[in-house]
Each structure stands twice: as structure tokens, then as C-alpha cells.
Design a protein that fits this description.
mainly alpha; globular; single chain; two-stranded parallel sheet; 167 residues; 43% helix
């Protein structure tokens, strides 16, 4: 905490949403006593397909370029995420994307309360953000909340091998 104090002076709250973070949850909980971990999940086929079609930076997300490695990565992440959430329910929250879509304001309020933050109506207008967004979801943020994020149905049986690996 002392070593990171200078970065936290102006911005005491930070987020890191890289898909490779889950193995470090235990270390983060141990090193950062005020940390809250949000394990964001959505349909496994949709998630894996989204990673598979994304060209990540060189040396990042090597698991994302094959159905077998994607499915194994997904299963391992869910298993470990569930274990951390059971062990530290006040510090690790599993957030289902589909629940968020069905009740954006309610889920936003619950998520902020979990983090010890006050609700701000601006949270529901995230697509109006003026700052730069540098992530794979930057284009999605500008669009706003979409009620239907299913994309894999268009590929029919082509994704059956992935579906089979995830069951």
C-alpha cells in the first residue's frame, strides 16, 4: 500500500478488468485489505466466443486462440471464482451479466453498495463518458446498454465443439 500511495492520491479507486486477473485474487485480497473483487460473468459460450474473436495485444491472453484452452480457462476461472466468493462473501462478488441486463439500476445499486460506494445516476449513463476508454470494450461503451448481447446463435452448429467443451 505504501508503494502505491502516490497513484492513489488523486484516484483512490481503480479497476483492472483483464481476463487474466483471476489467478491473482488471493494475492489481491491479502495485499489490499480494502479491495473488492467483482467476478463478472456471462453466458460461457458468449464469453469464450468474444475472447476467441478478439485479437489481444502480443503476449496477452494466449488461452483465447483455441476452443480447448478457452473452455479449460473458463472452467478453472469459474471454479476458483466460486471458491473465493464462498470464502470471502463480503469481498468477492459474482456478477451475472444477464442479471444486470434485466435490472440495470438495481444491479448497479447492489454492486456499488458491495463496493462501499454511493449510487450516482451517472452510472446508468455510462455511454456518455467523456474520458478515453482503452479496452476491448471501448466501442461497446459508446453504444450503451444493449438488452440482447447474444451473438453466437448466428454461428449455429459451428460453435458446437466449443459448447461441448463447456458442458
Amino acid at each position: 500500500l505504501a508503494m502505491s500511495a502516490r497513484w492513489r492520491m488523486d484516484r483512490p479507486i481503480s479497476t483492472d478488468k483483464l481476463p487474466e486477473n483471476w489467478p491473482f485474487v488471493g494475492a489481491a485480497l491479502a495485499m489490499l485489505p480494502g479491495a473488492r473483487i467483482i467476478d463478472c460473468r456471462r453466458d460461457p459460450v458468449e464469453t469464450c466466443w468474444s475472447c476467441y474473436k478478439q485479437l489481444f495485444a502480443p503476449g496477452r491472453a494466449g488461452f483465447a486462440y483455441g476452443f480447448e484452452t478457452l473452455a479449460a480457462y473458463w472452467r478453472d476461472q469459474v471454479r476458483l471464482g466460486d471458491a473465493w466468493a464462498a470464502r470471502f462473501p463480503n469481498r468477492v462478488r459474482v456478477q451475472q451479466h444477464e442479471n444486470f441486463l434485466s435490472d440495470p439500476e438495481g444491479e448497479t445499486r447492489r454492486l456499488l453498495a458491495f463496493c462501499g460506494l454511493e449510487f450516482d445516476p451517472a452510472c446508468l449513463r455510462f455511454s456518455h463518458v467523456q474520458r478515453a476508454v482503452r479496452s476491448a470494450s471501448a466501442a461497446q461503451i459508446k453504444i450503451g446498454l444493449m438488452s440482447d448481447t447474444r451473438r453466437t446463435t448466428a454461428f449455429g452448429s459451428l460453435l458446437d465443439p466449443l459448447r461441448a467443451l463447456l458442458t
